[in-house]
Design a protein that fits this description.
- Helices cover 50% and strands 12% of the residues.
- By secondary structure, the protein is an alpha/beta fold.
- It folds into two domains: 8-69, no CATH class; 75-358 and 406-445, Aldolase class I (TIM Barrel).
- The strands form two sheets. It has an eight-stranded parallel barrel with strand order 4-5-6-7-8-9-10-11, surrounded by six helices.
- Helix 2 runs antiparallel to helix 3, helix 3 (52-69) packs across helix 7 (137-151) and helix 14 packs antiparallel against helix 18.
- It starts with 7 loop residues before the first helix and ends in a 13-residue tail after the last helix.
C-alpha cells in the first residue's frame, strides 16, 4: 500500500530520494525510484491526504515532475485541424471517461499506447462525473499524469473536460449566472491542465422556433462566448481544443442543415481572426450508458453512421474541422467500432462499458455494499416502472465517489483481474478505431508547451 503524507514535511521526505525540488520546478535524480515507489506515494497523497495543503503540494509536484519527465498536458487542436485539411489518414481518437481507480485505469491506457505506438487518445471527465465521482479537475489531471510517469510514457497527454453542459432550467432563470458557472468550471479545468474542453449548450436548442438558426441561437451564442473566454485565459503557446455540440445526446438525430445553421451563427458571433472550434458532437441515435431493459440487459441501438459521415464531410471540407464526435458509444456492439474511422468521425467518447467491466469483476460483498448504499441514498432517483436491475444499472455510476478509497485499495488479485480485462478492452478498441501507430502524427502536429501548475494567461 503506498504511503500517504500527512503534512508537507512527510511529502518532502517521500520525494527527496528521487526528486530535487527547485525554486522554479524539479530535477529528477533517480527515475527508477520515482517510477517504482515515489509516484505511487505522490498520487495517493494527492487524492487521499487529509491535509488540503499537502494534497495541493502533491498535485503541484506531480505536474512539475511530469513536465520534467516529458509527459506534458497538451491540446489536440492542431492535429484536428490537420485532419480537417486532409493531411492525416483516417482514425477516430478514443476519449475515455475514467470514473473510478483513475490512476490504475489510466496506466492500462498508457501501456496500450506504448505497446502500439498510439499518440491520439484522450482522458476526459464530464461536468456531471466530476460531481458524483468526487474528482475535481486537479485531482483527475494529477492521476493521469502520474500514470504516464509510472508507465514511462513521454509525449503530449490530452486531458479533456467533457460535456461542460448548460442546465436549461437554470439558464432560463438566469442566463448570465449559468454562463458564469460554466466559465468558472472551465477556468478550474484549464488551470489543472485540461487543454481540451467540450462546451455543451445543446440543451438550450429550442425546436419550437421556426428556423434552424433560431433553434440553435442560444447554443451557438454561448459556444461563441465560451470560445472567446477560453482564448482569453489559455496559457501562452497553447490553443485549447474547443468542441461544440448540436444535438443533445439521447435526443433526435442531427442533420447537416442544423450543423450549417449553427456554424453560420457561431462564426458571426466569434471575433474576427479568433481560432474557433475543432470538432462537432452530433446525435446519431445513441444514449449515454445505453438503455437498460427490465432484466438489466442493454437494448440494441440503431446508430446512423450517415449522420457522422455527412456532417463530418461538411465539417472537414467547408470549415477544416477534425470532423464529428460520437458520444454514448462504449456499450455498442464490438463489430461497429471499426466503422467510425471511415465515417469522418474524429473522436468517440467511451465510459459506461469500462464501468460495467469493473462492476462485473469486483467481489460480491463489495458490490452489495455499494448497491445497498444506492438503494438507500438514491431511492428518489428510482423512476416509476423501473425494475431494480434498471435502477441499479442507471445509478451505479454514483457508487465511485463515496467508495473511492475502497476502489483504489481493492485486493491486489481482484484489481489485477479488473485491470487486465480493461487493458484487453482498450487494446481491442484502439485497434478498431485505427489509432495504432498514430504517434507520428501527434509528434508532427503537436508541439507540447510545459506549463507550470495552476498557470493562466494574465
Amino acid at each position: 500500500m503506498p504511503s500517504i503524507a500527512k503534512n508537507i514535511d512527510e511529502l518532502t521526505k517521500i520525494v527527496s530520494e528521487a526528486v530535487e525540488i527547485k525554486e522554479n520546478g524539479v530535477a529528477i535524480k533517480d527515475e527508477n525510484k520515482l517510477r517504482n515507489t515515489v509516484i505511487d506515494d505522490l498520487i495517493y497523497t494527492a487524492v487521499f491526504s487529509e491535509d488540503d495543503n499537502t494534497k495541493e503540494n502533491a498535485k503541484k509536484l506531480i505536474r512539475d515532475i511530469a513536465n520534467e519527465f516529458g509527459a506534458i498536458a497538451s491540446s489536440i487542436h492542431d492535429l484536428y485541424r490537420a485532419i480537417g485539411r486532409g493531411e492525416v489518414r483516417d482514425f477516430t481518437t478514443p476519449a475515455v471517461n475514467i470514473r473510478g481507480m483513475t490512476y490504475d485505469v489510466a496506466r492500462q491506457i498508457f501501456k496500450v499506447a506504448l505497446k502500439h505506438d498510439v499518440g491520439a487518445f484522450i482522458f476526459e471527465i464530464a461536468k456531471s462525473e466530476i460531481g458524483y465521482t468526487f474528482q475535481r479537475p486537479s485531482e483527475y489531471a494529477s492521476a493521469v499524469l502520474a500514470a504516464a510517469i509510472k508507465e514511462g510514457y513521454k509525449g503530449p497527454v490530452f486531458i479533456q473536460g467533457d460535456h461542460f453542459q448548460f442546465n436549461a432550467k437554470k439558464y432560463a432563470e438566469n442566463p448570465e449566472k449559468e454562463l458564469q458557472a460554466i466559465k468558472d468550471l472551465t477556468e478550474e479545468a484549464i488551470k489543472a491542465g485540461f487543454y481540451n474542453i467540450d462546451i455543451d449548450p445543446s440543451t438550450l436548442v429550442d425546436y419550437s422556433k421556426e428556423t434552424l438558426k433560431e433553434q440553435q441561437y442560444h447554443n451557438y451564442i454561448n459556444t461563441a462566448k465560451m470560445t472567446e473566454f477560453i482564448r482569453s485565459i489559455e496559457p501562452e503557446g497553447i490553443t485549447v481544443s474547443v468542441g461544440a455540440e448540436i444535438g443533445h445526446i439521447g435526443g433526435k438525430n442531427s442533420t447537416v442543415e442544423e450543423f450549417e445553421a449553427f456554424m453560420e451563427g457561431y462564426l458571426e458571433e466569434l471575433p474576427e481572426n479568433m481560432e474557433g472550434i475543432s470538432k462537432m458532437s452530433v446525435q446519431t441515435g445513441t444514449e449515454h450508458g445505453g438503455v437498460p431493459l427490465p432484466d438489466g440487459s442493454i437494448a440494441e441501438v440503431k446508430l446512423d453512421f450517415n449522420v457522422l459521415k455527412d456532417i463530418g464531410k461538411v465539417a472537414r471540407e467547408k470549415y477544416q474541422l477534425g470532423g464529428t464526435v460520437q458520444h454514448g458509444a462504449s456499450t455498442l456492439p464490438d463489430e461497429l467500432f471499426d466503422k467510425f474511422p471511415s465515417s469522418n468521425c474524429c473522436e468517440i467518447h467511451l465510459a459506461t462499458g469500462f464501468q460495467n467491466i469493473m462492476y462485473d469483476l469486483i467481489p460480491e460483498d463489495f458490490k452489495n455494499e455499494i448497491y445497498n448504499w444506492i438503494k438507500t441514498e438514491l431511492k428518489n432517483e428510482w423512476k416509476e416502472g423501473w425494475t431494480e436491475e434498471q435502477f441499479i444499472y442507471k445509478t451505479r455510476k454514483k457508487g465511485f465517489g463515496p467508495f473511492k478509497y475502497q476502489w483504489w485499495t481493492l485486493d491486489k488479485e481482484v484489481k489485477e483481474k479488473i485491470l487486465k480485462a480493461l487493458y484487453d478492452k482498450f487494446e481491442f478498441l484502439f485497434e478498431k478505431l485505427a489509432v495504432f501507430n498514430t504517434r507520428e502524427y501527434v509528434e508532427k502536429y503537436i508541439k507540447p508547451v510545459k506549463v507550470p501548475y495552476n498557470t493562466l494567461k494574465k
